[in-house]
Design goal:
Number of helices: 15
CATH architecture of the domain at 8-207: Distorted Sandwich
Structural class: alpha+beta
Protein name: Trehalase
Mean pLDDT: 92
Radius of gyration: 25 Å
Largest sheet: 8 strands, antiparallel
Number of strands: 25
GO molecular function: alpha,alpha-trehalase activity
Helix content: 25-40%
Low-confidence stretches: none
Strand order of the largest sheet: 6-7-8-9-15-13-12-11
CATH class of the domain at 8-207: Mainly Beta
Distance between the termini: 32 Å
Shape: globular
Domain GH15-like: 222-589
Domain Trehalase-like N-terminal: 9-135
Strand content: 15-25%
CATH superfamily of the domain at 8-207: Glycoside hydrolase, family 65, N-terminal domain
GO biological process, one term: carbohydrate metabolic process
């Protein structure tokens, strides 16, 4: 399938922007990922607002690409003898977005292109931005901060240029932000001292630390490095928090109301990304996340909020009634009430992550310094692993005994036992090994359905098939070739009921070649597709594993960016974008394959 154009993605370690193929900045929150959006046309085209580059004569968007080994986005348009090239980047650790705009007369006559830039920030009944002009600057002040937009190399926001055939004209547009207009103006001035070349060098030096995947396929290589950079861009540098995605309420499925705010740090998502960072050689990034997670631990050893804002505090869910999605989808949510859910995998995520971090770094002193937190977390798991919960997919209406959550309780207790041995605390190692065995025994018995001949999402006869039970193999409870696991996967591989026109019937998870996360899902999900591929890697079926990897690459955008869901029939992205779940699994899948070749 031909890759679909969508949005380019750039960021600086505290916020991020989406750039449309028509040159507009269609999403930007300031001053943080989880602030109210300054521009949100990517979510609500009618009233979301954007920073647009209007050019006369009109040009047609042609292509978007990243400069090699970088996060500098190049967007090109052509028409009527004029070529427009825009290079967008956000220097890491600074507070601005830079745009280098290059106009070139490619025709045979003299052109007089009129260049206008228009900013229309989002305005709702809840949040209002005030806009004022001063010379060649535009100032925008909102509820959480302010922005300053201005150009250099051009006399004002609107200018007429005369370009002879073959002649080029370059000018800069810098958008800076801060907690006040004064700070925004100062950051704007500093923006002209950060060069494109310095930013290019920064990304290339960062990528040199990466472990290389074993592949000669340029598409796979590009997807791997792009995924690593996406994970870096989802990291909030100041605290080490890793967000799930930089957007809110992008419709997850056509015509649905699963429109959620993902601009927060989930312990689960962050843990997955930290595993990918450690596997790829980025141990500092992984450790920063674990330090952030440990700072949230409660006195009894548990974590009672599965997701938190990037600063570790605050956040409530509310609905913006005057906004709607691209096709009128509602509700549009800011904040996420799932932070008050019970999710048993929180402690297991941290403990298993610390064990894998130790295996990657062999830093015994670090683990020793965090021993008290490890001990308290393992004791919490001993006491609470048998509780019902909202589960990995955060079902709001009910609590159940989810297999995935209990598997992570097993993984956390097992990790704590291993760490105890490394620390020479053998009395704790035996205790937690026995506790892990109790968890394993219960879930292998009660999670199996004799009727369906498969492990299901949660205990009980009415539970659906769910991709998350593959964690039985990923965390060592069952071997990939165990007969019950093979039967479960065979059930998953059957066509989904909706995919064959039987919405009320039983079926599998295979939807038009992609894999859904559970029965009766509307469209496939990147993470389950790659999880099933990783299972096949472990079982030795490399051909099927690569088929599933290729499904994801075929449905990614032309920049190898992935949302949460996708539709293999159209190549459309659905859900918040880009999604950390999807990109961390690309990294882990390819490194897992490389490990098995060594």
């Amino acid at each position: 399938m031909k890759h679909q154009p969508y949005y380019g993605f750039i960021g600086n370690g505290e916020t991020a922007a989406l750039i449309a193929p028509d040159f507009s900045i269609a999403w930007l929150c300031v001053p943080r990922f989880d602030s109210f959006p300054l521009f949100a046309a990517a979510l609500c085209p009618e009233c979301g607002g954007s920073l647009r580059l209007n050019i006369e004569p009109r040009v047609t968007p042609l292509s978007q690409r990243y400069l090699p080994e970088s996060n500098i986005l190049e967007t090109i348009g052509r028409g009527n003898g004029l070529q427009v090239t825009v290079l967008d980047f956000m220097p890491w650790g600074y507070h601005h977005l830079s745009r280098l705009i290059i106009l070139e007369n490619t025709g045979t006559v003299t052109l007089k292109p009129r260049v206008d830039w228009v900013a229309r920030p989002i305005v709702t009944s809840v949040h209002t931005f005030k806009v004022r002009f001063q010379g060649s600057f535009q100032f925008i002040s909102g509820p959480e901060g302010a922005a300053c937009i201005g150009m250099a190399g051009s006399p004002g926001p609107t200018s007429t240029l005369t370009l002879k055939p073959g002649e080029k004209h370059r000018f800069w547009l810098v958008l800076a932000y801060g907690s006040s207009l004064t700070l925004a103006r100062q950051h704007w001035t500093a923006g002209f001292y950060s060069s494109l070349e310095e930013n290019l060098t920064w990304w290339r030096q960062w990528l040199r630390k990466a472990r290389r995947p074993h592949t000669a396929n340029p598409e796979v290589t590009e997807a791997y490095y792009r995924s690593l950079m996406v994970l870096k861009l989802l990291t909030y540098e100041r605290t080490g928090a890793i967000i799930a995605a930089p957007t809110t309420s992008f419709p997850a499925v056509p015509g649905g109301n699963d429109n959620w705010d993902y601009r927060y740090c989930w312990l689960r998502d962050g843990y997955f990304t930290a595993l990918a960072f450690d596997a790829a050689g980025y141990h500092e990034e992984a450790r920063s996340f674990y330090e952030f997670a440990l700072s949230l631990q409660q006195p009894d050893g548990g974590w009672y909020m599965p997701l938190v804002p990037v600063e570790g505090r605050g956040g409530t869910e509310y609905i913006a009634g005057d906004l709607a999605g691209p096709n009128g989808e509602k509700p549009i949510r800011f904040g996420n009430a799932a932070m008050h859910q019970i999710q048993l995998d929180n402690a297991g995520n941290v403990l298993d992550g610390l064990w894998n971090h130790y295996l990657a770094t062999r830093d015994r002193e670090y683990i020793r310094s965090r021993w008290d937190a490890i001990r308290r977390a393992a004791i919490w798991l001993e006491n609470y692993w048998d509780q019902p919960e909202n589960g990995i997919w955060e079902i709001r209406e009910r609590k159940d005994h989810w297999l995935y959550g209990k598997i992570l309780c097993y993984a956390g207790l097992t990790a704590a036992s291993h760490l105890s041995i490394e620390m020479g605390r053998l009395q704790w190692a035996g205790r937690w090994h026995r506790a892990a065995s109790r968890v394993r025994r219960q879930l292998l018995i009660h999670g199996w359905s004799v009727d369906r001949q498969a492990y299901l999402q949660h205990y009980g006869p009415d539970a659906p098939l769910d991709i998350s039970v593959l964690a039985l193999e990923f965390y060592g409870l069952l071997a990939a070739n165990h007969p019950r696991l093979q039967k479960t996967v065979a059930a998953m591989e059957k066509p989904a009921p909706v995919a064959r026109g039987e919405p009320s019937g039983r079926g599998g998870l295979n939807m038009w070649g992609g894999i859904a996360r559970f029965e009766h899902a509307a469209i496939p999900f990147y993470l389950p597709t790659l999880w099933l591929g990783r299972y096949y890697l472990h079982s030795g079926n490399y051909e099927r594993a690569h088929e599933l990897l290729q499904v994801c690459l075929d449905n990614a955008t032309d920049l190898y960016l992935m949302a949460e869901h996708f539709d293999p029939r159209t190549g459309e992205q659905w859900g918040n974008f880009p999604q950390g779940f999807s990109h961390q699994e690309i990294v882990r899948f390819l490194l897992d394959y490389a490990y098995r070749e060594e």
